[in-house]
């Protein structure tokens, strides 16, 4: 499909569409969306450095924990312009400790993305299961699940998350989750999932309600298909597209929420860093060392933006007729 | 270690700090044996520095002074519960008078004793076992009634009601000649529940003369500097009819130049002039401003911003918690601020305490001291602005008691770690106490720290710098307001915790016993079972009973060296603190006895 610009091309495309699988079609539409492709590369880049953080840091000769007193002045602030950016510390050093900001950013990406991925996975699984069950069974089960969804939506979740951090992490630790950051991260993932699944469930329920009235579903039902067959063979394959879109759009949301929580002090314990921890710390230095605030801030904006643009691209590719407003 | 200063910690810890955490310190050497022996001293440590708050302008009357605070409320306004430096300075200069006070003056002058409700600074008899004070005429409360001898005795008696009157200094209980039961508790339970015979015990120890002109304190032993003790507001008068017990904290009756107009914790406290106070009866308070507004629950960063910006009412504002380290460069490198900033020693010493029960091996404790990057810790707190590396628990300003101590061999004086020496010390521990060695190198030492931004950095420095010596630190973050209650709880299983302490008056008798005796008010070391403890206890008691001040000083010096050798805790810094205040605030100097502004003496510059 390299020549699609001409009127003839469009006609040719129309003809060709008939002979391609929907997945292939979507992929080709996505490939043509240059902005989305660029965004995907940015996302891949971030995921890549997060996955290979130790290697990347080793190659750059930096370490997120190493103190560097020489990079600080007598006030404990970076000893040089722009947060003491230098060949040794490409993005400067952290005030107070002299730790390398680039290294902390790379390791921080690991934690931010880990929380994002795991939370997205959990919310998607819970949301899809409950959404399909509610939409497919309707009646009493639907009523119970829907009311429960409404109740969860009505919760002042952020307040609850902040207030419950300490008791719940302690409970997790007593249940055998390793003390400290593993417990805190588990807590963050769990509460994000606990409050996040409802958005997935609502959309999936709506899609399911619409689908179950379609002829092919009725045909399957009429021919005596069981519940399992109905859900997994008839309904689920037909709502993959919206689910993929939800996933790609909610992931950056969780990365941002993790940052917010860390910023509010619910996040990680030292000496580890996430982007939110860095942002939270850097705000105090906005006057003395603005570069420090700038670096994790820009990184977060770029990552979230890239994920969102990629998500939009995927949605457009999967469902070219969809109205952006409806699904977002 | 070297990390941050207690005034900053106050902010972080908020209310919890209250519990006798930060005792205030005081001025002047205490070789005072008699009423005239008030002295010259170096306690204030400001001697060589210019004192910026003392501008040459003539104080003017009127206007409103704003005090910006991170706390939710004044920790305690109830005089018998008031025990933080900032609170003592605030309440003492505005609402609560005492028999004797430190002079309201900058620098070392502020550590001289002056008469307040009394007409003298106390007359000791029986070698200092009985102290009497003659009362001044004309002192009144905010309702116009006179301050009587009975009110001072009543106020003092409230200290004994330890279930209601909490967090305050308890010197009245330990010093007054009131019998104790078998458990060592006073037989006098405080005025709320005392039966007539119990009240008689107290009335015998604190007696008013027939004419109500003289109050006499009978002590259980000689306390040569008891007149310094009564500068604490715990010896302030409380009118019995107005005492509301626990609630008195919110509605204390004023005997000073200001009274409470409104008090909403979390928001503000407004003080206005007490029309019934007369300058004629009060030789020390000047009461320039018409009113004070104490603004609570502000973010420390916001307080600094407001003071830097110096706009509107903030021109008349001071903070009560010092500058944040991240703003030191801004304030101290710009001449714009040169007339409204100060950098000075405060009365405190910071330290890191080991749980001697679990870290029972001095070689391991020494290895931590040697291997710790104290320089990095100090830098994170603001570099030299944090203070000087401490060589013990007695600041040089306590001239009688201080002597440079001999620090462990191999300890780098510039605060950088000596990894080799630390490893060598650990190697000794390996054979001598394999259990503690394994704990320190494999399992990890549990470090309990307040969960604050600065501590997240400091604990990272602990972990990283000790890693080089092979010591593992496992951090546990504790909610700031619960930090001290947590580590003072016997059940908390920390290996390392931290604290800051200052003397209540210039005698190490308010430092070393408080920090290291098992009965002390702020002992975080759990050192009671240490083989060296018995010796320490005997020597400390001998020092407390020593009547000759110079000889006593020598004993404290020896004990300080003993503590540095035992390393039940690691000395941190002799701390400094920095302040910035609004451009139209006058008299903004640090009162050496508390390390705080003398709030009541601030005035509005015209």
Task: Annotate the secondary structure layout.
The complex is a heterodimer of chains A (328) and B (606).
Chain A: H1 7-17, H2 22-32, H3 34-51, H4 53-60, H5 81-84, H6 101-137, H7 139-154, H8 157-174, H9 181-211, H10 215-222, H11 227-235, H12 240-263, H13 275-283, H14 290-318, H15 324-327
Chain B: H1 6-13, E1 64-68, H2 85-94, E2 100-102, E3 113-115, E4 123-125, E5 130-134, H3 149-158, H4 171-175, H5 196-205, E6 206-208, E7 214-218, H6 226-229, E8 258-264, E9 268-273, E10 291-295, H7 300-309, E11 317-319, H8 328-332, E12 341-354, H9 362-371, H10 374-380, E13 387-389, H11 419-432, H12 434-443, E14 445-450, H13 453-467, E15 473-478, H14 483-488, E16 496-501, H15 512-516, H16 533-545, H17 549-566, E17 569-580, E18 585-586, E19 590-591, E20 596-597, E21 603-604
Helix pairs in contact in B: 9-11, 11-12, 16-17
Characterization of the model:
The complex is a heterodimer of chains A (328) and B (606). By secondary structure, chain A is mainly alpha-helical. Chain A is built from 15 helices and no strands. Chain A has helices at residues 7-17, 22-32, 34-51, 53-60, 81-84, 101-137, 139-154, 157-174, 181-211, 215-222, 227-235, 240-263, 275-283, 290-318, 324-327. The longest helix of chain A has 37 residues, at 101-137. Mean pLDDT of chain A is 84; it is low at 323-328. Helices cover 26% and strands 17% of the residues of chain B. The two termini of chain B are 43 Å apart. Chain B has 606 residues and is α+β, with helices and mostly antiparallel strands. Chain B has 17 helices and 21 strands. In chain B, the strands form seven sheets. Chain B has a five-stranded mixed beta sheet, covered by helices on one side. The A-B interface holds A 65-67, 69, 72-77, 94-99, 166, 179-180, 265, 269-271, 277, 280-281, 283-285, 287-289 and B 301, 305, 308, 324-330, 332, 373, 375-376, 379-385, 451, 453-454, 456-457, 459-461, 463-465, 474-477, 479.
């Amino acid at each position: 499909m390299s020549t699609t610009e001409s009127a003839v091309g469009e006609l040719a495309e129309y003809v060709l569409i008939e002979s391609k699988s929907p997945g292939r079609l979507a992929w080709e539409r996505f490939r043509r969306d240059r902005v989305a492709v660029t965004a995907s590369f940015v996302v891949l880049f971030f995921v890549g450095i997060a996955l290979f953080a130790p290697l990347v840091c080793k190659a750059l000769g930096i370490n997120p924990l190493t103190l560097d007193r020489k990079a600080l002045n007598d006030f404990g602030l970076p000893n040089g312009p722009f947060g003491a950016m230098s060949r040794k510390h490409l993005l400067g050093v952290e005030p107070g400790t002299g730790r390398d900001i680039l290294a902390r950013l790379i390791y921080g990406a690991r934690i931010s993305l880990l929380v994002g991925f795991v939370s997205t996975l959990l919310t998607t699984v819970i949301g899809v299961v409950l959404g399909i069950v509610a939409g497919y069974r309707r009646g009493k089960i639907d009523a119970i699940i829907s009311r429960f969804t409404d109740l969860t939506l009505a919760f002042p979740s952020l307040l609850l998350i902040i207030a419950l951090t300490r008791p719940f992490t302690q409970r997790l630790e007593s249940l055998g989750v390793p003390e400290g950051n593993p417990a805190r991260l588990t807590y963050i993932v769990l509460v994000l999932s606990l409050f996040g699944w409802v958005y997935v469930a609502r959309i999936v329920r709506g899609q399911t309600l619409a689908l179950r009235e379609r002829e092919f579903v009725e045909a399957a039902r009429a021919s005596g298909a069981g519940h399992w067959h109905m859900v997994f063979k008839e309904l689920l394959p037909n709502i993959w597209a919206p689910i993929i879109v939800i996933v790609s759009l909610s992931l950056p949301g969780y990365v941002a929420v993790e940052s917010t929580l860390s910023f509010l002090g619910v996040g990680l314990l030292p000496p580890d860093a996430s982007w939110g921890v860095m942002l939270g710390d850097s705000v105090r230095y906005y006057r003395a060392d603005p570069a420090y605030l700038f670096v994790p801030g820009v990184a977060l904006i770029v990552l979230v933006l890239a994920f969102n643009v990629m998500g939009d691209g995927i949605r457009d590719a999967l469902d070219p007729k969809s109205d952006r407003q409806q699904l977002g | 270690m070297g990390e941050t200063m207690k005034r900053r910690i106050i902010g972080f810890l908020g209310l919890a700090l209250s519990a006798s955490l930060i005792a205030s310190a005081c001025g002047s050497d205490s070789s005072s044996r008699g009423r005239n022996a008030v002295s010259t001293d170096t306690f204030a440590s400001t001697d060589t520095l210019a004192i910026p708050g003392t501008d040459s302008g003539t104080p003017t009357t009127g206007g409103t002074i704003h005090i910006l605070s991170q706390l939710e409320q004044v920790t305690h306004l109830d005089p018998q519960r008031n025990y933080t430096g900032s609170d003592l300075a605030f309440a003492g200069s505005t609402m609560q008078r005492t028999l004797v006070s430190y002079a309201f003056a900058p620098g070392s002058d502020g550590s001289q004793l002056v008469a307040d409700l009394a007409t003298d600074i106390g007359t000791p008899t029986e070698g200092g076992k009985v102290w009497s004070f003659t009362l001044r005429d004309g002192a009144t409360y905010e309702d116009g009634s006179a301050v009587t001898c009975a009110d001072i005795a009543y106020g003092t008696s409230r200290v004994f009601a330890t279930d209601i009157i909490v967090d305050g200094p308890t010197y009245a209980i330990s010093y007054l000649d009131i019998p104790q039961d078998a458990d060592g508790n006073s037989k006098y339970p405080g005025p709320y529940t005392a039966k007539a015979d119990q009240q008689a015990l107290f009335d015998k120890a604190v007696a008013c003369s027939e004419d109500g002109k003289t109050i006499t304190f009978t002590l259980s032993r000689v306390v040569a500097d008891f007149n310094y003790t009564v500068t604490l507001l715990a010896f302030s008068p409380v009118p019995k009819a107005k005492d509301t017990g626990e609630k008195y904290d919110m509605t204390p009756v004023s005997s000073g130049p200001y009274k409470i107009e409104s008090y909403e914790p979390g928001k503000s406290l407004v003080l206005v002039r007490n029309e019934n106070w007369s300058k004629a009866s009060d030789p020390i308070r000047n009461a320039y401003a018409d009113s004070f507004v104490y603004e609570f629950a502000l973010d420390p960063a916001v307080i600094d911003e407001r003071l830097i910006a110096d706009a509107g009412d903030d021109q008349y504002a001071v903070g009560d918690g010092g500058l944040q380290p991240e703003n030191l460069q801004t304030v101290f490198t710009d001449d714009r601020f040169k007339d409204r900033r100060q950098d000075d020693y405060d009365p405190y010493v910071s330290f890191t305490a080991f749980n001697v029960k679990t870290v029972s091996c001095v070689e391991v404790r020494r290895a931590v001291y040697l291997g710790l990057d104290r320089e990095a810790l100090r830098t994170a707190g603001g570099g030299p602005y944090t203070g000087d590396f401490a060589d013990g628990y007695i600041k040089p300003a306590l001239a009688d008691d201080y002597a440079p101590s001999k620090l462990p061999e191999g300890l780098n004086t510039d605060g950088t770690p000596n990894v080799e020496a630390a490893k060598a010390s650990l190697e000794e521990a390996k054979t001598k106490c394999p259990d503690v060695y394994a704990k320190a190198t494999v399992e990890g030492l549990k470090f309990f720290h307040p969960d604050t931004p600065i501590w997240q950095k400091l604990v990272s420095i602990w972990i990283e710098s000790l890693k080089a010596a092979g010591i593992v630190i496992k951090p546990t973050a504790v909610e700031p307001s619960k930090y001290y209650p947590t580590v003072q709880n016997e059940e908390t299983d920390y290996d390392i915790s931290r604290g800051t302490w200052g003397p209540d008056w210039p005698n190490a008798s308010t430092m070393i016993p408080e920090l290291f005796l098992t009965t002390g008010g702020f002992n975080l070391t759990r050192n009671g079972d240490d083989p060296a403890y018995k010796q320490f206890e005997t020597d400390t008691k001998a020092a407390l009973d020593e009547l000759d001040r110079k000889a006593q000083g020598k004993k404290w010096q020896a004990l300080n060296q003993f503590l540095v050798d035992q390393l039940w805790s690691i000395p941190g810094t002799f701390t400094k603190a920095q302040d910035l205040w609004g451009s139209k605030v006058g008299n903004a100097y640090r009162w050496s006895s508390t390390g705080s502004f003398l709030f009541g003496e601030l005035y509005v510059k015209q």
